[in-house]
Amino acid sequence: MMMSPGLCGGHKLAWVLVFIGAINWGLIGFFEYNLVNAILSSAPTIERVVYALVGLSAIFSLFCAKCSMCKTSK
Length: 74
Description:
The chain is mainly alpha-helical. It has one domain. The protein contains four helices and no strands. The relative contact order is 0.20.
């Protein structure tokens, strides 16, 4: 999925976070390397927040078609 220029700012941010999460899961699956943990291992609370934001971004992205801001900017 390519990022559409017609997306609102919230959906663009959500798309970036979902992309980061997908890259991280790919690295875990193929190489057993957790990039988020490698960057934030000294701050486990922040690491959990990053994972939570990625998950919420995925849910938020599901509702892009119903976003009035995305509809008006297309």
